[in-house]
Amino acid sequence: MTNNKLKLTAQIFRSLYRIRRIEEKITQVYPMDKIKSPVHLSIGQEAVSVGVCEALEPQDVVFGTYRGHAMYLAKGGDLKSMIAELYGKVTGCAKGKGGSMHLIDKDHGVMGTSAIVGTTLPVSVGYALGLRYRESDAIVASFFGDGAVDEGAFHEGINFAALKKVPIIFICENNEYAIHSHHLRRRLADNMCERVRSYGIHARRIDNADVFKIYRFVKKYSMLIRSGQIGPVFIECMTARWREHVGPNEDFDFGYRTRGDIEHCVKNDQVQRLRCLLPGPVADRIIGEVETEIEEAFQFAEDSPFPDGVELFNDLFREA
């Protein structure tokens, strides 16, 4: 392995492992009632956010959904602020008033996540239009699930993006389920990219959540978008969530899917794949550093105060 390849593999492994372990820690803490908001975990889906965000530049921005921990962390969002936000503490990224579903870190290009399906799509397109008018070389990556493709905001957003040729990459994290509804119960065919291409947008499907394929595709097309050679791009990343739709547990006894339905994704786990690619001492060093960072972040949240009552009247659309 060349030095550059080793460096990239180590960076991607750190991000993958870090997200996985943070969320596993969340599953341990959640039953203690210290986390004050519902959590939608990305365990099993980390490779999508990591592959995309590793290929972006610092000036680029991301918008996401309520399942946004992985995106927030992969783009560089502050870990201590995120955990404090989950605890409802004033040191959180939204001062303890947003919780897990409303993460933001503008300093690192994380422009916000939303609890309502599809709502960040038109916002991200509008932001990308603003970038084009300012003649910025930054681009937007807009993350959403396969359920959002059924929303009118999705079709309006990609049509407008194509029409105005705005600098945006649409990232569909297709885990095949909108809560408990399989995507083929909601549409006649497995043809998402074909539908998107009808709007005049480049579209590509990446199977098995291959983190290097996602990285290479985003790297290539982000350069083309920056140079003005092409307009928006759509990527459908096939993946699987390993836990329930919302919460820390598994849900294979609910009757809508079985453990076998995600077995191929578990066998293709990108965290373990990259760990095996790295020399043992390199992987061990990364693991040790990440574990220390996580313990410090959760202790920071434990030690932080809750917001004062006056915070109820701050940060309103119209303050009294």
Structure description:
- With 320 residues, the protein is an alpha/beta fold.
- It has one domain (3-305): Rossmann fold.
- 43% of the residues lie in helices and 12% in strands.
- It has 11 helices and 8 strands.
- The strands form 2 sheets. Strands 2-1-3-4-8-7 form a 6-stranded parallel β-sheet, sandwiched between helices. Strands 5-6 form a two-stranded antiparallel ribbon.
- The longest helix is centred in the first third of the chain and has 27 residues, at 3-29.
- The model has no long low-confidence stretch (mean pLDDT 96).
Question: Which helices and strands appear, and what pairs or packs with what?
Answer:
Layout: H1 3-29, H2 46-55, E1 61-65, H3 69-74, H4 79-86, E2 110-114, H5 120-133, E3 140-145, H6 152-164, E4 168-174, E5 177-178, E6 181-182, H7 192-197, E7 202-206, H8 211-226, E8 233-238, H9 263-267, H10 270-277, H11 280-303
Parallel strand pairs: 1-2, 1-3, 3-4, 4-8, 7-8
Antiparallel strand pairs: 5-6
Q: How many angstroms separate the termini? A: 61 Å
Give the topology string: H per helix, E per strand. HHEHHEHEHEEEHEHEHHH
| Largest sheet geometry | 6 strands, parallel
Structural class per helix/strand content? Answer: alpha/beta
Largest sheet, order of strands side by side? 2-1-3-4-8-7
